Amino acid sequence: MNRPAPSPTSFPPTLTANAADRTTIARILKVNHAGEYGAIRIYRAQIAVAKRLYPDVLAFLSETLAHEVRHCEQFRAAMPARQARPCRIMSLWGNGGYVLDLVTALMGRQGIWICTAAVEGAVHRHLEDQLHFLDRRDAELRDLVLSIQQEGLSHLHHAEERIIAMSWWAPALASFIASSTDAAIWLSTWGDSTRMARELTAARKTS
Questions:
Q1: Given a cut of 80, is residue 168 above it in pLDDT?
Q2: Could you give the C-alpha distances from 75 to 17, 51, 67, 78, in angstroms and in order?
Q3: Are 148 and 5 in contact (CB under 8 A)?
Q4: Is it the case that residue 155 has pLDDT exceeding 90?
Q5: What are phi and psi of 189, to 5 degrees?
Q6: What crossing angle do the helices spanning 19-53 and 192-206 adopt, rounded to 10°?
Q7: Alpha-carbon dihedral of residues 67, 73, 78, 82, nearest 10 degrees?
Q8: Which of 10, 29, 162, 171 sits at a 20 to 30 Å CA gap from 56?
Q9: Which tens digits make up the pLDDT trace of 37-73?
Q10: What is the CA angle 147-137-130, rounded to 5?
Q11: If pLDDT is split at 50, 70 and 90, which confidence band does 35 have?
C-alpha cells in the first residue's frame, strides 16, 4: 500500500515559479480539490447501493472512499501557501456526481466498474499533464500529485480488471461519464479547468 504523501504547506525555498506559473499552480489545486470532492460523492453513492445489493464490493469502495477523502484534505491543506481557494459551487459537481453514480450503480456491478474506470481514467489524464508542469516549479506539490495518481491508477486497474464484457451500451456509458466528469469540473471551477489545460499545454510546448 502506498504511504500517504505529506501535504505541502509552503513553497519550497528553491521554487522558481513566476507569477504566471503560480496562477497555474493555484488552478491545479482548485481543479484537483474539486475533482476529489466529486469523487467522494461518487463513491458514497456507490456504497449506498452496494450495501443493499452488492456487499461483495464494499471493501474496495470503502477503501477507495478513504483514499479520496485524504486526497481532498491534502489538496485543501496545500492551498493557502499557494494563494489557491476552493471552488465556490463544488456542490454542483458533488451532487451531479452523486446522482450520476447512483444511477450507474443501480445498473449492476458492471455499472460500478465502468463508472469507476471512466472517472479514474479522466483524472489520470489530467494529473499526467500536471506532473510535467510541476516538475521544476513545485517539487513538493509534484510529489503529492504523483502519490495521488498512483493510488488512482490502482483504483482504475481494479475496475478495468472486473469489466467482464463491453456490451453495446458500455462504451457509450463510459464516454458519457468521462465527458460529464470534465463538464462538471469545468462548471464548478468557472472554467478554470480549461484555462489550466491551456496553460499546461503551452508549458509543455516550451519546455
A1: no
A2: 19, 29, 12, 5
A3: yes
A4: yes
A5: -105, 10
A6: 120
A7: 120
A8: 171
A9: 888 988 999 999 999 999 999 999 999 999 999 999 9
A10: 50
A11: confident
Q: How far apart are CA 42 and CA 36, in angstroms?
A: 10
Residue 129 near residue 200 (C-beta atoms within 8 A): yes
What domains, with CATH codes, occur in the chain? Answer: 19-206 (1.20.1260)
- Is the pLDDT at 12 greater than 60? The verdict is no
pLDDT tens digits, one per residue of 77-100: 999 999 999 887 777 666 777 787
Q: Which amino acid is at 171?
A: P
Map the chain to HEC letters. CCCCCCCCCCCCCCCCCCHHHHHHHHHHHHHHHHHHHHHHHHHHHHHHHHHHHCHHHHHHHHHHHHHHHHHHHHHHHHCHHHCCCCCCCHHHHHHHHHHHHHHHHCCCHHHHHHHHHHHHHHHHHHHHHHHHHHCCCCHHHHHHHHHHHHHHHHHHHHHHCCCCCCCCCHHHHHHHHHHHHHHHHHHHCCCHHHHHHHHHHHHHHHC
Whether pTM > 0.90 for this model: the answer is: no
Total residues belonging to the chain: 207
Residue 95 has a pLDDT of 74
pLDDT at 203: 73
Q: Which three cell numbers stand for residue 97?
A: 456526481
